[in-house]
Design goal:
The protein has 340 residues and is mostly helical. Helices cover 73% and strands 0% of the residues. The protein has 20 helices and no strands.
Length: 340
């Protein structure tokens, strides 16, 4: 049976599983975590049950993915006829028609608040700044993190922390409530926004937004939040910088951090670290120290995941402490305030 015939009999989930296998664990994990839990379960189940993938099938699926993605972009840019014309010239009429039929439905579905996502942040701020903080929080959950960050930074001080708190504690809202908010924004932006609901909000959403604001705004929001909900504030702080993000530090910062790290914690942390992180660590200590550290890691043997995570979190705590003290600087979005 040819690869094309095999693809015709596959479900979308089966194709997705093979696509993720082909992309590798690093890229796949970044995409998977953005999918709904139900879809993650289906895809991971298929991945677990796939033992081999024929090269021809893999190549067909990768090609189909690229073609579908291109088709959706063409549809968004110039409509169905434009996409059909471009693809027909490239692939022939029959092949183009098949791709258009498979991708048109997905491409024509807009995300919630899709027009707001395209609106200038300052214009959008003027439109929503007098709304209830819960309404503002809901809208920001659907925007690009950098756009939400700009709007959050410019909100009046008296509601800024309240909005951030509502984003962090938000999980799901009824479609009826979302529809009401969409209707309000629909009237103000004089446009129609389609429905397409997914999970949103929560600590991860707020962290993405705070990672794009300036250091001063982030610090003020977290400090104010800690007054009413110290546990939530601590969870947000811990999520702002994870151990793997150490690769974003410059060599001087890494060397400063390592001066305060216990050798046992460092060895345990490296036991579960990626190759990129390990290279950063080994590259910022002496050759002899690196050899000793590698021996320590190997000597540990099998260790419990919880022990590795605890050691990594200790190092993250040191990084955040040094950042707050101004001894190192984490890469931030926006511009930090300068005090003369």
């Amino acid at each position: 049976m040819s690869a094309s015939n095999k693809l015709d009999k596959m479900t979308g989930v089966e194709k997705a599983a093979i696509l993720f296998i082909s992309l590798g664990t690093d890229k796949s994990s970044k995409v998977l975590k953005m999918l709904p839990d139900a879809m993650i379960e289906k895809i991971t189940y298929e991945i677990a049950n796939i033992t081999t993938v024929e090269p021809e099938v893999r190549d067909e699926i990768l090609a189909e993915f690229v073609e579908m993605n291109d088709a959706k972009e063409y549809i968004v840019q110039g409509g169905l006829e434009y996409a059909k014309d471009i693809l027909t010239r490239a692939l022939g009429s029959q092949r183009a028609l098949g791709i258009i039929e498979n991708s048109a439905r997905l491409a024509m579905q807009k995300k919630p608040f899709s027009i707001a996502r395209k609106t200038d942040p300052l214009q959008l701020l003027k439109t929503i700044e007098n709304e209830h903080p819960q309404t503002i929080a809901l809208i920001l959950c659907f925007l690009q993190p950098e756009k939400s960050a700009q709007i959050l930074s410019e909100l009046p001080e008296e509601i800024k922390t309240d909005v951030a708190y509502r984003i962090a504690t938000m999980n799901k809202t009824s479609p009826y409530v979302i529809k009401q908010v969409e209707t309000i924004l629909d009237e103000k932006l004089s446009n129609v926004i389609d429905n397409n609901f997914e999970s949103y909000g929560g600590v991860r959403t707020l962290v993405d937004i705070l990672n794009a604001v300036n250091r001063s705004t982030e610090k003020n929001i977290v400090e104010e939040m800690a007054k009413d909900n110290p546990e939530l504030a601590e969870e947000i702080k811990e999520s702002m910088f994870i151990f793997e993000d150490i690769i974003s530090l410059d060599n001087t910062a890494v060397q400063r951090v390592l001066r305060d790290v216990d050798n046992t914690d460092l060895a345990l942390a490296l036991k579960g670290a990626s190759q990129d992180v390990a290279e950063i660590i080994y590259g910022n200590i002496s050759k002899r120290a690196a050899e000793t550290l590698k021996e320590d890691v190997e000597f540990l043997g099998p260790v419990r995941l919880v022990a590795v995570e605890e050691s990594q979190q200790k190092i993250v705590a040191i990084i955040r402490r040094l950042d707050e003290a101004g001894e190192i600087f984490l890469n931030r979005g926006g511009e930090d305030a300068i005090i003369a």
